[in-house]
Amino acid sequence: MTATPSNAAQAIADLGLQPATLHLNPGVDDLYAHAIRLGEGVQAATGPLTVRTNKTGRSPKDRFIVEDEQTKENVWWEGFNVPIGADVFDRLLAKMVRHAEGGELFVQQVFAGTDPEHRIPVRMITEMAYHSLFIRNMFVRPTAEELQHFQPEWTVLNLPSFKADPAVDGTRSDTFILVNFGRKMIIAGGTQYAGENKKGIFGVLNYLLPEKGVMPMHCSANVGEDGDVALFFGLSGTGKTTLSADPSRKLIGDDEHGWTDNGVFNFEGGCYAKVINLNPEAEPAIYQTTRNYGTVLENVVLDEQGVPDLNDGSLTENTRSAYPIDQIPNIQPGSVGGIPKNVVFLTADAFGVLPPLARLSPEQMMYQFISGFTAKIPGTEEGVVDPTPTFSTCFGAPFMPRHPGEYARLLAQKVQESGAKVWLVNTGWTGGKYGEGHRMSIGHTRALINAALSGQLDDVKFVRDPFFNLEIPTEVPGVPQEVLNPRDAWQDKAAYDETAKKLARMFRENFKRFESGVDQAVTDSMPDPDKN
Ligand code: ATP
Ligand code: MN
C-alpha cells in the first residue's frame, strides 16, 4: 500500500475515526487560515502564528507506557516510566474516536529522524490546526517524492479537547499521554502544549535505538568549520538551543540526536526555543524567528500593535518559538554530522558554585551523566530563597524509557571509541547564588566553549577544585580570570565554601541509588566535600 492521500484517509477510517472534515498534509498558509478560523490564535504583526495554550509546559507525570511482553522487560519502571494496561489504552482510544466524530482532523505525515536508516515515518493526527503547523515545523518534512510512497510506522492521535476522567479511565488526571509499543501508537488528550507532540515520539526513538547500537541523546549539536562536531547535553533551560545556534558554527539540531557508527543525526526538522527576555544582540538568529512568517509562537503576549513582547512573561516564563530549522542562517545541510570531537554537559547551577567550565575524566563523565544535575531558581513562594536542585538521569529522565545504566554504557563506549573530550559547563549563576550573584553572560559561556572546542585549552594549566573534584582551566582567552574559578567570583568565601559543600552533599545523596550499578572508579570520582 502506498500512502497516497486516499490511503491516509483509509488509515483514519480503519482507526474508526469519522471526522466531518479531514485535512491531509495541509501547508503553512492553509494552517494559518484554519488556526485563525478555529480561534486557536492570531497572526502577529511580525508574521508568526501566535497561540495560547491551557497548559504551558509538558505533563511528564501524565505519561504512561503500555506494559506488554516486550516493554515489561526493557523499560526501567522507575521515576517517570509508569506502566498502564493495554485495556486502558484501548478504552481511551475508543472514547477518543467517539469524541472526534463529526469534527475536524489534521494529518501530517512526517519523519522522526534525518538518517534514512534510523528514522521513523509517523502519521500525526491532531485536532488543532496549530499543532499540525507545529508538527510541520518540528519534524522532518518528506519530499514530494517521499510523500508519494509514505508508509507510516507509528501513529499519534492528539485531541486536547478530550479530557480523561481519572476515576473511570485509570489516568492520573484529565491529561494523558499513552505510549503503546505493541500497537505503535501514542494517544494524548487534555493538553494543548504542542511540545507533547514531539516528545512522545522521541521517547519512542530513545527506546528503540539502543537495540541497534545507536545512542539517543537529549542534546543539541553543531559543527565547526573543519567539520568537528560538538554535542551539548542539558536539562530544560540550560542552553542547548541558545548555545548550539552559534554564529561561528553550523547548527545540526537543538534538542535530540542519535549517535551511530558514522556520526550524529538530528531527530527533528525544526527548533523549539525559549524566547522569554530574548536579547536580540546575544541571540540574533533565534530572535529573528519571532519575526518570521511560518513560526509558531506559544504563549507569547502581543502588544497593542500585535508585535510580540518577549519580555512579557504574564502567561508563562516558558514562552516558545517553534520554527523549521532553515530559519537559522547557518545550518548543516541534511542535519547530520560526523563522529563528535567534543561532548559538553550543560548545567544551570542556581547555587552559583559549579565552575563555568571544567574538563571531565571518563569516570566523571559517567558520574555527571547519570546524575544529570541542574538547579531551578526559587519559585515566588514567600520565604523560599534557596534554589531547587534537579537530578534527572541522562539529562532527560522523562524521555528515557530504559535503565540509565544502559544509556550511560552506550555513551561511554561511543566517547571511548571516538576519543571525544568531555566538558561540564555551568550556564547558571556566578558570584553568588540566585538572588545574590548573577547569571553567567552568554558571551563568556560562548568564549569558554569555543576555547574548549578549538583545542585552545590543550596546553593550558588546569587546577582541581576542592569540592567537586573538577579540573578547572587557569586561563581562557577572552574570559576574565576571576570568572574561571567560581570561588574567586564570590566575595564571601565562607559562604561559597558552605554552599559548595551543600551542593556536593546533594550530589552524593542523589547518587546513592546508582552506586551499586557502576564501577568503583566512577564512585571514586564523585564530589567529596568532607574529605577536605
Ligand atoms: P529545552 O530543553 O527546554 O529546550 P534548552 O536547554 O534548549 O531547554 P534554552 O532554550 O537554550 O534551553 O534556554 C536557555 C535560556 O537561558 C535562554 O533563555 C537564554 O537566553 C538564557 N541564558 C542566560 N544566560 C545563559 C548562558 N550563559 N548560557 C546559555 N543560556 C543562557
Ligand atoms: Mn531547547
Automatic annotation (TrEMBL):
Its EC number is 4.1.1.49. Pathway: Carbohydrate biosynthesis; gluconeogenesis. It is found in: Cytoplasm. Transmembrane segments: none annotated. InterPro entries: PEP_carboxykinase_ATP, PEP_carboxykinase_C, PEP_carboxykinase_N, PEPCK_ATP_CS. Belongs to the phosphoenolpyruvate carboxykinase (ATP) family. It is an enzyme of class 4 (lyase). GO terms for cellular component: cytosol. Keywords: ATP-binding, Cytoplasm, Decarboxylase, Gluconeogenesis, Kinase, Lyase, Manganese, Metal-binding, Nucleotide-binding, Pyruvate, Transferase. Involved in the gluconeogenesis. Catalyzes the conversion of oxaloacetate (OAA) to phosphoenolpyruvate (PEP) through direct phosphoryl transfer between the nucleoside triphosphate and OAA. It catalyses: oxaloacetate + ATP = phosphoenolpyruvate + ADP + CO2. Binds 1 Mn(2+) ion per subunit. The lineage of its organism: Bacteria, Thermotogati, Deinococcota, Deinococci, Deinococcales. This is Phosphoenolpyruvate carboxykinase (ATP). Its cofactor is Mn(2+). Substrate binds at residues 58, 193, 199, 320. One of its GO terms (biological process) is gluconeogenesis.
